[in-house]
Design brief:
Structural class: alpha+beta
InterPro entries: SET_dom, SET_dom_sf, SETD3_SETD6_MTase
Distance between the termini: 74 Å
Protein name: Lysine N-methylase
CATH superfamily of the largest domain: set domain protein methyltransferase, domain 1
Largest sheet: 4 strands, antiparallel
Organism: Thecamonas trahens ATCC 50062
Keywords: Methyltransferase, Transferase
GO molecular function, one term: protein-lysine N-methyltransferase activity
CATH class of the largest domain: Alpha Beta
Length: 800
């Protein structure tokens, strides 16, 4: 039970006096302590009966968007923003849920939108911008709290002055429980949006002295945001044209009522008589707490995000899924874990010609299963794990009792895991009902005699460690066939000194050895040591790597004239620094490595091995610092910026490579498209994988323009932006103001500048084509230079 201090008791008395003076009627109720803080109890001897009106409050007592907007403080804000050239956020009006018509009495209840606690945006719906009215309301709350001279001061004094029990304001210790969930991504977006709002509309006024920076700081904005969403009601109002709409409002006294899903309430707003009233549908005995209902249909996701609490029931919980950014959204639940609409969209996105309906559906279901597994693993725990902690009430490792916030997070997380687990089971059931074998992914045939022999070496080794061929989709790989951090421990225990040395260096915080560097050393060692674990894997790796680091001297001359060359030099410098450091560490006498072993670690070999790690190593889902080097032959995948990105899931005794996003699949015998770098430009892909693809929307064309004052202006044309933004970029560079620039002059100037760039890049491509290509790295350079030409030609077309 909450026990208020003397100061809180005084604030309650002042608040009650303010309510009485304002004509608020609540004869059946009394403000009293509850286990949730302040609450409201039934004050009369006979309690509260069904249908009783709990409270009636004049609309003039509400703190609304209109109240804030009509204040002198708001007027000073708008004027200051105009002086500071700050663009005003757009106004936003929400239509009321009721038809309204000419009737100014609007009735709502549990789960309706009319007069109830305003339904905070769900995890997937919250935008990172805000309307002008809402921004002014946030700032008015901060202003009123500081000034303490406004009409609503007694009400604002009673609000929590510190709010740290919602996901937006959690401490890092509590927020970690949301890692890998939809909530984590949403909270990051909300906080980022609020920081941007502060920088764009509050910081400029602080700099001009309009606002006090000690009062209007980032913490205060987070406070106002949390107060608004945790207490806001949607109150019907008439706009300037007479149409009915919902206005955001804080309703004193009503917002002290705590939530219970077991009660029924009815809200009445009379615009004619100017009051808001609340009636109960649930009787309450004398002295017991009277509850409101924030909405019957709200699941733990929305309750936690908006109000900061969640409960054990998961009946209303949903899990939101999108198959692509900006695409349709789908809600999964325990009652419907695999919606037909989701399967239909997956089938549409994975369509491939020449397949039967069953094979087509199998492909879609397999991709959904991969998506659900990756999402489930990202949280790092199962529903059963969280259930066990909730039942025990303590953390198993420390024995510390769960805090209330931690319990709420676990309720939410457990519900999300239960839905994903149900979704995975539903997909597996659907796949089983198709009565088909999974599709097979085949290793692509090698193009040369040496390559054929190398592929056969890999096949022989893969079979020896239990890696079945052809490989099923998703790819499941025995743990014994993978190079991992934990593998060094048993190898060292078995007497391998290199494994022991690497394990010791990785565990030493003073050495700071990267796991990727240790993998590269092991690959060199195992490749040249037949008795070493994973010798077959290391020996089967291609001797020729596609990275431009290994391009021939003639092709390097071409590279020197490309934007990639500085990054290439930097990469080799970093690799040499890593190499020198690790070889020096391994040479320590205490590690006991033989001279002939250390002699294997030549610089050219390390450069090759580290490039192999870049190509093969993948992060394990949900474990950001855990890498695994998988025995997937490189010719099994081809790079495509428009294809799937693959994630690694660690299962019992094996690793599974699962596709995270959907794309066109391919047929057996053809390399599988793979985009191992999310949102990677062709320069990044070429540097790591020797890969590039024309039309990559992540590419950026950069140009240098000499200004009249002699300064150099750098122009950037992102291929994903499109012609309109490219022309605006050019107009700003030439005229300063894109809206005042003559379109014909911009087009002409842009064309003259870009045609020279295109011609230079075409000449570069011709030089690359003239080189006698002698290795995969040279082929990669040719592809990269071709992508440079394509990018320049694409932007040029916007100025013709």
């Amino acid at each position: 039970m909450y026990h208020p201090d003397a100061a809180t008791t005084e604030r309650v008395a002042a608040f009650e006096a303010w309510l009485d003076a304002g004509g608020v009627q609540y004869p059946l109720l009394a403000i009293a302590p509850s286990r949730y803080g302040l609450g409201i109890t039934a004050a009369k001897d006979d309690g509260v009966a069904r249908g009783d009106e709990l409270l009636r409050i004049p609309l003039a007592m509400l703190l609304t968007q209109e109240t804030a907007a009509s204040s002198p403080f708001a007027g000073s804000l708008v004027a200051a923003w105009a002086d500071a050239d700050c663009p005003l956020p757009a106004s936003a009006e929400t239509p009321a849920g009721s038809d309204g018509g000419d009737d100014d009495d609007v009735v709502g209840g549990d789960g309706s939108d009319d007069g109830e606690a305003l339904d905070g945006p769900s995890v997937e719906e919250r935008t990172h911008t805000t309307s002008l009215e809402r921004l002014v309301l946030y700032l008015y709350l901060i202003h009123a709290r500081a000034e303490r001279t406004t009409f609503h001061t007694p009400y604002i004094d009673l609000l929590p002055q510190v709010i740290d029990s919602t996901p937006v304001t959690y401490s890092p210790e509590v927020a970690r429980l949301l890692a890998g969930t939809n909530m984590e991504r949403t909270v990051a977006g909300i906080r980022s949006g609020l920081h941007a709002l502060y920088d764009s509309h509050i910081r400029p006024l602080v700099a001009r002295g309009v606002l006090d920076g000690d009062v209007f700081d980032m913490d205060s904005l987070l406070w106002a945001y949390s107060v608004f969403w945790s207490r806001c009601y949607g109150i019907p109002a008439r706009d300037a044209t007479g149409n009915l709409r919902l206005s955001a409002a804080l309703v004193p006294l009503a917002d002290i009522l705590n939530h219970s899903g077991d009660v029924g309430v009815e809200y009445v707003t009379s615009l004619t008589d100017g009051y808001f009233a609340l009636k109960t549908r649930t009787p309450t005995a004398a002295g017991c707490e009277v509850f409101s209902n924030y909405g019957d249909a709200k699941g733990n996701e929305k309750l936690l995000l908006t109000y900061g609490f969640a409960g054990p029931s998961v009946v209303e919980d949903t899990y939101f899924v999108q198959l692509s950014a900006g695409g349709a959204g789908h809600y999964l639940s325990l009652a419907a874990p695999l919606p037909d609409a989701l399967v239909d969209e997956a089938q549409a996105r994975t369509h491939a010609s020449g397949t039967t309906a069953s094979t087509h559906k199998l492909r879609a279901l397999t991709h959904l299963l991969a998506l659900f597994r990756a999402r489930h693993l990202a949280a790092g725990v199962s529903a059963a794990d969280d259930e066990a902690v909730l039942d025990a009430g303590v953390w198993p490792a420390s024995g510390a009792e769960l805090t209330l916030d931690e319990r709420h997070c676990l309720y939410y997380r457990r519900g999300q895991s239960l839905i994903l687990e149900a979704a995975m089971a539903a997909v597996e059931t659907a796949i089983g009902a198709l009565d088909l074998q999974p599709e097979k992914l085949w290793v692509a045939p090698a193009r040369s005699e040496a390559g054929t022999q190398q592929v056969e070496t890999w096949r022989t080794w893969a079979s020896s460690v239990g890696l079945d061929l052809p490989i099923s989709s998703p790819l499941r790989i025995p743990e014994a066939a993978a190079l991992t951090r934990s593998a060094f421990v048993p190898w060292a225990a078995g007497g391998d000194r290199m494994a022991g040395a690497l394990d010791q260096l990785l565990a030493d915080p003073m050495v700071e050895l990267e796991l990727s560097t240790a993998f590269a050393i092991w690959i060199i060692y195992a490749r040249h040591t037949p008795s070493a674990p994973l010798h077959g894997l290391a020996a089967a790796l291609p001797a020729e790597h596609p990275s431009p680091v290994f391009a021939s001297p003639s092709m390097r001359n071409v590279l020197a004239a490309t934007p990639l060359f500085p990054a290439l030099v930097d990469a080799m410098t970093v690799a040499k620094t890593e190499y020198d450091a690790v070889v020096a560490a391994l040479s320590a006498e205490s590690l006991g490595l033989a001279e002939e072993t250390l002699a294997l670690l030549a610089w050219p070999r390390y450069l090759w091995a580290s490039a192999c790690v870049d190509l093969h190593a993948m992060a394990v889902a949900g474990r950001t610092s855990d890498l695994v080097f998988l025995p997937i032959h490189p010719s099994a995948f081809v790079y495509s910026p428009h294809a799937d990105a693959y994630a690694v899931a660690r299962l019992d005794g094996s690793y599974e490579v699962v596709s995270v996003w959907l794309s066109e699949n391919t047929t057996p015998g053809v390399p599988i498209p793979n985009a191992p770098l999310v949102e990677a430009s062709n320069a990044e892909a070429a540097l790591r994988f020797g890969a590039a693809a024309p039309g990559n929307t992540n590419d950026v064309l950069e140009l240098q323009l000499s200004a009249d004052d002699g300064d150099e202006v750098r122009l950037q044309f992102a291929l994903g932006d499109g012609p309109a933004k490219w022309r605006a970029t050019m107009a700003r560079a030439l005229y300063g103001d894109a809206t005042q620039a003559p379109g014909d002059e911009v087009a002409q100037a842009g064309y003259e500048m870009l045609i020279g760039v295109v011609e230079e890049r075409r000449a570069l491509a011709a030089a690359a084509e003239s080189v006698d290509v002698s290795c995969p790295a040279d082929e990669g350079v040719v592809r990269y230079v071709a992508s440079l030409v394509a990018a320049a030609e694409t932007v040029l077309a916007a100025f013709k």
